[in-house]
Amino acid sequence: MVPLSYYLLLSGFLFGCGVVGFLIKRNIITIFMSIELMLNGVNLSFVAFAARWHALAGQIFVFFVMVVAAAEAAVGLAIIISVYRTRETLNVDQVNLLKL
Amino acid sequence: MNPMLNLWLIPILPLAGAAINGFFGNRSSRRAVTTIALFFSGAAFAMALWVAARFSSLSLPYQEFLAHWIRSGSFTADFAFYLDQLSLVMLLVVTGVGFLIHIYSVGYMWDDPGYYRFFSYLNLFMFFMLTLVLAGNYLLMFIGWEGVGLASYLLIGFWFTKDSAASAGKKAFIVNRIGDFGFLIALFLLIKHFGSLNFEQVFGGVLPLHTEPAGGLLTAIGILLMVGACGKSAQIPLYVWLPDAMEGPTPVSALIHAATMVTAGVYMVSRSHVIFERAPIALTVVAIIGTLTAFFAATIGITQTDIKKVLAYSTVSQLGYMFMACGVGAFSAGIFHLMTHAFFKGLLFLAAGSVIHAVGGEQDMRKMGGLRTKIPWTFWTMTAATLAISGIPGFSGFFSKDEILWRSYQASWAYWLIGVVTALLTSFYMFRLWFMTFFGEYRGEADAHGHGGHTPQDAHATHGHAGIHESPRVMVIPLVILAFLAVFGGYVGVPGSLGGNNRFDKFLGPVFHGSAPANPETTAMGEKGAPEQETEGPEPKRGISTELMFTGISVLAAFTGFGFAWLLYYKRVDLPQKIAASLGGLYRGVAHKYYIDELYAAVFVRPLINGSTRILWQGVDRNIIDAAVNDAGDDAGRVSDEVRQMQSGNIRSYAGWIAAGSALVIAFMIWMGVR
Amino acid sequence: MSFHLILFLAFGAVCVAGAVNLLAQRHPINSALSLIAVMAALAGEYLLLGAEFVAAVQVIVYAGAIMVLFVFVIMLLNAGVEDETKGSHVAIIFGVPGMLISSVLMAWVVLRHSNTGSVAIGALPGHPTDIAQLLFHDFLLPFEVTSVLILIAIMGAVVLASKPESSAGKAD
After folding, report:
1. Radius of gyration of chain B (CA)
2. Does the beta carbon of A87 lie under 8 angstroms from any beta carbon of chain C?
3. What is the ipTM, given to two decimal places?
């Protein structure tokens, strides 16, 4: 019997790591992976709550989150490829034309 | 019940004429403009006559309600008209003399390029003046009051391309405004204490009040109303605009600054007699101002060389007489003089215009002379007017001025004495004008080609008639009609002591009598408004012979003035120069109008302009208001420059902001949840 | 110290280590491998909670497909060690502390209300049959919509990643 709060803490930690990774990393792909980490953390909390409240809908939601993550990863990586082709760099600090 | 007279038509008809001429006159022929102007002002006169004809069948005061205007809480002011004997007299004078002057102006202004504009303004003036006279409440009267000021400004500055004319117009309007300020405060006091500006209600509220021997509300109202009258009717200290107003065309001087607008103050004071009768201090103020002005202006008049300026100061002086009359409680005498003054002063101005027209624009009397034979009609009509104004027995001015002098003596011998001296001066300067203009040798420059003096004051003077010529018929006929009135108009007011029955005073009796304050204490000011059963009728025998004696004295004064004028300007024309030289500085001071204009400029005008420039313009407007707006703009720019840094295009900084922001939101939600 | 707790801590340690390693590594491929480790450990956590289907899908789809895609792209683009560029101060100064603060706050909230109960091992068995029952009955619409979403994503990816020589904007 593990208290639910442990699962939530773990989930929160994973999410926090994802955000921090997004903030401090300079490589676009690594940033993307941080996003995936965030999503995973959220998935964990969904499943934990589903188990706690005996609602299978939580696991269904995880299913959908994964689907959307997959779609997003596909499109996002395609964009990264385009950006690499145009700007010859994977450094996010150099993709800064959208400014005033 | 009174039948509906549709009094509102009387002011509206000239307004229609003003509108039509104003909007379409530019493209219309002179004939059309003339027809419109004369039709509408004539229609107003005809209607006034019609009202007069039906007058005896009305129960007075006749009040007519036209439309709602202001309904604010318990205060109402409507477009309502009021007709009693006093209004009828004013109505007939304004429409009658106004119509005659319209006819005269057709001839006088014929060659002016602004012909249609002149008649539009003139009709507009009639509208406002009639509103003033027929108004049933002080607020509507104030509209007319302001409106005639506006019309005066427009007409004085009619030749607006001339700097002096434009300035004179401004001066008139601004000085008037000072008086209007006093008038407004009086109105506010009336609203506060009587809850209305309606004549019936105000006077009804004032009637039961007692006299205020030592001042009080009614005294304050009276003095403030008098301030307004000083501005409009050119009394001390606000008379300075009237001489400058001579920049306007002569018919304007005749109509506005002699016959009608400047008398609005007298009318207003007479209309408010109920208030004044209960405020002896205010009445004294009125009388003193009137008397002083009469004398003061007369002294200036004897030194002026411009024919119109003489008449201007004469107007100020005669208005002083009217106020003196009101100030001693002889309101009907003041109105009587107002009426005769409209006749003879209007005639004097129109005839002066005729003279100026004849000599091709010259207004300096030193360059006139000997015109008697060349412009006979003008000469004879002007003679009639001069005799009237000087108080020569038999003419209208004699009866009205004499009435005033007699009644003022009953108040205080000081008023009477100053009045008699002023009458002497009046006679002197009028006959001086008469002699200088019509007698002796012609000293001017208008030769056979009809080119007159330089810089013609009136644009019309450049028509190429030959030599000095009489004015056209359209100008002479009003002169004749007014001369007739100047001679015979006074017979409605022949006092009892001279065998008449003073119909005028009796006519105005119901207006002014029966309104005395309830307390029987008659103060030292005599029986102003005290219930006199008689006006000029049966008086104690001592009264009649005393009155005859005083009449004799004033006649003597008139003839003495004539005598001096004959001596100095006909017999020995070298004398005036010598006298002026020997009086030196005194003469110069009087000739320069006692330097009052310069004094006002130094004390009021220049400090105001300086203060306005330095404090209000540079200080407040530029440094505070503009600076506030500009700084606000600059600040917005600067702030946005700072905030703009956020849009760096750097994804990580965006993410950083999002993270920080979401931290705040989460913190807030937790805080809310914990509470 | 139940068996459940020990297993939880074990898998949890792997997750934490992998996450921290993702942040610490400078080469993206190392970060990708750590992420795979995290996902595997998470699959273990799901199993602990009884979500067998979800755990399987996690490994197959997430770790097996998505992360492989990531690795392919890393290799395609020949991503190297990160350069040290001075990026944004804001991110470091405001973002990281902000994130830490909110994490602390959330942790505090979670621990304060720790009376939410406990979860038993294998608490909610997620059999495929039960999941299918829900998926194709109650959640049919989201299911169909997400399939359309995937289709769109495929088309978008193809278009975006296609070589510039082939006509841009035409999905063939």
Report:
1. 30
2. no
3. 0.90
